[in-house]
Amino acid sequence: MTYIIGFGSYLPERIVTNLELASRLEVEPDWIVANSGIRERRWAGPNETASTLAVPAVEQALTDAALAPEQIDYLIGGTLSPDYQVPGIAPLVQRKLAGCRMIPALDVRMACCNILYSLQLAKSLTLSGAAQTVVCFGAEAQSKGLDLSRRTPEISMLFGDGAGACVVSTEPRKNGPSLHIEDILIGTDGTFAEDLGVKSPGTANGAFWLGSESVSSIFPTMNGRTVILHAVRKLAEAAQEIVRRNGLAPEQIDVVVPHQANANLLDALAKKLAISPERIVRNVERYGNTSGASAYIALHQAAVEKRFHPGARVLVLAFGAGFTWGAALCRVVP
What we know:
Elements lengths: L2 E8 L3 E4 H8 L3 H8 L3 E4 L6 H15 L9 E5 L10 H8 L8 E4 L5 H15 L4 E8 L12 H4 L5 E8 L8 E11 L7 E2 L23 E2 L1 H21 L10 E4 L4 H11 L10 H4 L6 H11 L8 E8 L3 E10 L1
Parallel strand pairs: 4-5, 4-6, 11-12
Antiparallel strand pairs: 1-7, 1-8, 2-3, 6-7, 8-13, 9-10, 12-13
Helix pairs in contact: 1-2, 3-4, 7-8
């Protein structure tokens, strides 16, 4: 069996309010709230990177699980805002974790859905016997890659920085509740691959991977209407399918831990699933959309808020670029 036995997160100190951001994007602060629900977000400092944000989140998750870095068998990390184009973030975090052995360190690039693909891999590794303890994490410093001008306020208003992590193990922990991973459902539809992403650098840009377009190609682009329509639909379908195939109904889910895309999406999802809003873990108002770190941070928040009471059913939901999406169904064990 496979369990999540430790949770951690880390947020940069700098708080960026809508008032500060609106003046740069040439919009009103109330416009940001109306279109996203976000009131503030955290941004990384000049010397902070995705990997430096990830390390304290991983360390906190290990402490929560009562484990040391030398006990990790496998490290799986994800980010949309890596320190470098190459190498990936996982080897950098492995290097910075004092005591961590020369274990496999793998990057996943499934955007805001990183957590579900990482948990699927971690579950497979533990069930196969290839690993006993796997640490999964997501970290973002997306503020360093935003177009902070009036050209794309609908994108730049969304993103915040941060990191989250969880420890996956073959054994439940003895000092608190664990989440038994009962089922994971994930999917991809590459038809919409260009509707959300960052085009440069990339080898689809012609003879030179920065392309011949203006510098704007290095900034995120989004077809907002397509993204939110598919996000609500796919997340609801994934939630309904995973509870159905496990003999449950949506009303039997006690805690929903979704990717924090924006408040409007969370409201629409709650309505579509007919789940009371208080069952949904939310932090988008304070942290913004932290992309690949988002669901990890929300998972840690749920643990801190002591929402994981024995027997509770927990549903983790995520949707990201690609399009990628899915759900993980967990049950809390003592």
